[in-house]
Design brief:
Layout lengths: L4 H4 L2 H29 L2 H5 L7 H8 L3 H13 L4 E3 L4 E3 L2 H8 L9 H10 L2 H10 L11 H25 L3 H7 L2 E5 L5 H9 L4 E6 L2 H14 L4 E5 L9 E7 L8 H11 E12 L11 H20 L11 H10 L4 E7 L3 E7 L1
Parallel strand pairs: 3-4, 3-6, 4-5, 6-7
Antiparallel strand pairs: 1-2, 7-9, 8-9
């Protein structure tokens, strides 16, 4: 009797794979429910108050018990919250509360749910792009992407920018303290720009972004801080104006459809002894070094956000998991002679680029 594909297969391996798929099904649904938990204030209602029943949470939030009952089961099944079978009550561990409710905490991650929710809304468009090879601009995404990106990246900037990243760049912290001019390109809502402006009042900062609604939001956020050394302007990395001692890219150089042209523009806009700092997502030097949870997230974001934007704005696609070598190639083609990885975190690489 002829052997079939089914008889040759190791059914145990098939079952193990199906287990991974079911886990992913649950994770995908849980991201949506966690987004709702963030938006509706469910995590905040559970934070630092001890065990709550379904009815308790309903009273605290004004939400429907019918929805909360299974939302709580989903969250407990994912390990986000705890359940005590003796009392039938749920609790949010303090450590999880810091990550899910405290936007000033360097551990805050809830903005990521908002980003992923926005990405999911672009699926139909991206599906078509697989066939056509066309792109989709950043500004064409659902508005949750813009706010979510600021909420997701800001904690990392708060935890690393002043204490780790800037000190790793040659002499830049000392120069910022003394007073220099800084351009923050692709600044979005201006989180990175504002953090630096607050820390270095003697320096002058200009945040640039080609997405006008983001610049409007950045101006409002900066005005609340009453800073007199910061401004924002609508401009891309290839048409921003002014001369600067320090130019920064925070998680955006890889999104640009002409990164070589952007860096060439930076070269012409740098003062003597000027420095560029580019913060980029963590990625491996070899393809297989991205086969991990961080690489999985960043490569997925690349397909849904970064690659489409690059295709729509010039066509040079670095992608979110561009290697150090690929980034250095771009810098050298733009005319820069020195390129080094200054420091890193589990989620980011920080590069120093010099003429």
């Amino acid at each position: 009797m002829e052997e079939t594909t089914m008889t040759r297969m190791d059914t145990k391996k098939v079952e193990e794979f199906l287990g991974r798929v079911v886990t992913d099904f649950g994770a995908a649904l849980s991201v949506v429910l966690s987004y709702i938990g963030d938006k509706k204030g469910l995590y905040k209602a559970m934070a630092y108050v001890g065990p709550l029943s379904v009815s308790d949470l309903a009273r605290r939030t004004g939400m429907s018990e019918n929805y909360l009952k299974d939302w709580l089961i989903n969250q407990a099944a994912g390990g986000y919250i705890n359940f005590d079978p003796r009392t039938g009550k749920y609790s949010l561990p303090d450590e999880h509360a810091a990550a899910l409710t405290d936007e000033c905490s360097p551990f805050f991650v809830a903005g990521g749910f908002q980003v992923i929710n926005a990405m999911m809304k672009a699926v139909d468009r991206i599906e078509d792009n697989f066939s056509t090879g066309t792109g989709m601009k950043w500004g064409e995404h659902h508005h949750d992407l813009f706010e979510g990106t600021e909420r997701f990246f800001k904690p990392s900037y708060l935890g690393n920018l002043l204490e780790n990243w800037l000190p790793a760049v040659t002499d830049i912290r000392q120069r910022l303290t003394g007073g220099i001019t800084v351009a923050d390109l692709g600044c979005g809502y201006g989180a990175s720009t504002i953090i630096m402006a607050e820390a270095f009042p003697s320096s002058t900062f200009v945040g640039f972004d080609n997405h006008e609604p983001s610049i409007e939001r950045a101006r409002k956020l900066a005005s609340k801080k009453k800073l007199n050394n910061i401004s924002f302007a609508v401009a891309g990395a290839q048409d921003f104006t002014g001369k600067y001692d320090f130019i920064t890219f925070f998680d955006c150089l890889h999104d640009m459809g002409d990164p070589i042209g952007a860096l060439k523009k930076c070269l012409s806009n740098l003062n003597p002894k000027g420095i560029i700092m580019a913060v980029e997502p963590m990625a491996g030097k070899r393809t297989e070094e991205n086969f991990n949870p961080v690489g999985r997230v960043y490569s997925g974001a690349s397909v849904l956000i970064c690659t489409p934007n690059a295709l729509a704005t010039g066509g040079y696609v670095l992608g979110t998991v561009a290697s150090d070598e690929e980034l250095e190639k771009v810098a050298r083609q733009a005319g820069f002679r020195k390129f080094r990885r200054a420091t890193e975190t589990p989620f980011n690489r920080v590069f120093e680029i010099l003429p």
